[in-house]
Amino acid sequence: MSDVWHAALFGATWCLLIGIVLLVPDAPAQAIPDKTPYLVGLGIIAAAFAVLALRAKPDRGPAFDLAIVVGLVLLGAEVGFAKLVLLDPVLFPSPARVAEVFAVDYPEMLDGLRSSLILLVAGYLAAVAAAVPIGLVIGWRRRLYRVAYPIAKTVSPIPTTVYLPYAIVLLPSFAAASIFVIFIGAFWPILVGTCYGVFGVDRRLIASARTLGLSERVMLTRIVFPAAMPSILSGAMIALILSFIILTVAEMIGASTGLGWYLVTNHQFANYDRVMAGMLLIMLVVIAVMQVFDRVQDRLLAWQQPS
Amino acid sequence: MIAIDRVSMVFPDRDRRTVALDEVSLRVGEGEFVAILGPSGCGKSTLLELVAGLSGSTGGSLLVDGRPVTEPGPERGMVFQDYSLFPWMTAQENLEFAIEQTNGHHSREENRKKAEEYLGAVGLKAWAQTYPQRLSGGMRQRLAIARMFAIGSKIFLMDEPFGALDSLNRAYMQDLLLGLWKRGETDRTVLFVTHDVDEALLLSDRIVVMTPSPGRIRETIDVPFGRPREREHLNSDERYLELRARLLRLLYDELVDSLGGRTRLRAELA
User: Fold this and answer.
1) Is residue B151 within 8 angstroms of chain A, CB to CB?
2) Which chain B residues are within 8 Å of A303, Cβ to Cβ?
3) Which of B78, B88, B102 sits opposite A303 (nearest CB)?
């Protein structure tokens, strides 16, 4: 009953939106000859929400609610920007104009996406690969921790983007410089998360493991590492969000391709429909990457779920 | 054989030192089932940890089979009230991991078979792929006991293993433990910490009553009943009732003493 009600409301919102896009003429300042890209985009979004809602079990309500909210926001933008032009049409392009950018600029965008993801993944994975083992050992050996802690505490709050200009000069390419800066930025949260995780491991679990007579290597890899995993992952999550910030800032400063570069270049040429499209693209990328992270996390922590 | 000779354990706290064990001496023969009975804070868990090798004493000597205990090892298996198992491993993986780590020279296939065999022995075959989090408290303890058997421990150190279970599960676990204990050709020694008088009487050959601050052995009582024991028969045995009353009095006296003596307690109750 409630599902049917939700679906009906979802359908009504989106039909109204598409109806207004198609039937009500745009104001002259926002008019474009071809609205196909926007309509295709709307169709894809609506279909995606429908699939999401159908796959959601047992309660489809939240997925439909989200779809309705997105529909209403788009409806507001359509009426406010495209039809009534309540705001400056240069700074606030109509949704259809933003959609057109995707249709025109997609080769450039895909290129940028690829180069950005390479930097992000390389810097981030390098940070994970370095920080987790180091964190495990530092957390396990209290004496090491006492040495490392003051250093980490002093260095970690410094925004790593301040190293960027120097890194660009010192390292052979911009790519190397931004990978390095992302690496540094992601390193600290993962290190701290890992150390805390190791500290938090229940003493009784360690005792139980010790009665098996484990070697230190096995103790770290098979006991301490998985036991610290929840904390490692929460550090890794913060690191991932930081990596996005560092990546886009770096690209805005020194890149000649990439998502941040796309934004800042079009800003310089006052192409605000392109700036808007770039922001949307980055949002979509962040959402997608976070989804992947969530999946990985759910799998790694499957043992924590009570049922 | 476990030979504990005038063993002390002192924790130097900031403002006062806590004497968890004060020159405790105890001998436990091979194949003996000894219950350590006492209120919380009497040092019974500390004593167990020393035998396990999880911590070192501050005085005295502790020999197992003539050798001083310096570190933990699989020949002294331990079961805690909870937390014996690794929550990120399924029931099967917990056993396989323990087996693999303690006799690594066997093949993977052999280890798997052995794990399955012990899972079956404690009735957990259907739960092999389940994480401990999703098992009941009783099942978790069965698994912990299975692990101890699977790694071939000669000495079982059990720290209130059934303390968190309801009475029905507890009775079931007690019978299961006794059934497994005497199975096979090896003589397994058990040191069983509890604060349950009935549990101590049902399970053990000898009961060591400990008293707190400082932790000392107050009395050692031989349990006269033969094996196998049936709890229904015990309940109607006069010696059982007598021993039970005596043990309760020992524990109760301790409690009263720690509250400031019988006279003060009486005065306060009046």
Assistant:
1) yes
2) 87-89, 131-133
3) B88
B152 in contact with A at a CB cutoff of 8 Å? no
| pTM of the predicted protein model | 0.87
Evaluate whether A182 touches A250 at the Cβ level (below 8 Å). Answer: yes
d(CA A189, CA A131): 9
- ipTM associated with this complex: 0.85
Instruction: Please report residues of B whose CB lies closer than 8 A to that of A210.
Output: 53-54, 71-72
Same domain, A172 and A300: yes
Nearest residue of chain A to residue B91 (CA atoms): A303
Asked if residue A185 and residue A152 are part of one domain, the reply reads yes
C-alpha pair distances (Å), A107 with each of A103, A110, A113, B267: 9, 5, 10, 91
Give Cβ neighbours of residue A217 (< 8 Å, ≥ 6 apart): none
Q: Which domains does chain B carry?
A: 2-75+154-269 (3.40.50.300)
- Which of B263, B262, B236, B268 is closest to B249 using CA atoms? B262
Examine the fold and report which residue of A92, A123, A149 is the final residue of a domain before the chain moves on.
A92
- A222 in B contact zone (CB under 8 Å): yes
Instruction: Tell me which residue of A235, A262, A267, A241 sits closest to A251, measured CA to CA.
Output: A262
Closest CA to B41 of B219, B260, B254: B254
What residue numbers bound the domain in which A158 lies? Answer: 103-304
Does the CB of A211 have a partner CB in chain B at under 8 Å?
A: yes
Instruction: Tell me the pLDDT tens digit for each residue of A174-231.
Output: 999 999 999 999 999 999 999 999 998 998 899 999 999 899 999 999 999 999 999 9
Say how many domains are in chain A: 2
pLDDT digits (tens, 9 = 90+) for A95-105: 999 999 999 99
Residues of A with Cβ-Cβ distance to B132 under 8 angstroms: 303
Q: Within this chain, do residues A138 and A111 fall inside the same structural domain, yes or no?
A: yes
Q: Do residue A213 and residue B73 have CB atoms under 8 angstroms apart?
A: yes
Contacts of A305 in chain B (CB under 8 A): 133
Q: Identify from A201, A202, A211 which residue to disrupt to test chain B contact, counting B C-beta atoms within 10 A and taking the largest count.
A: A211
CA B191, B192, B197, B202 dihedral sign is negative
Token code pair at residue A246: 């560092």
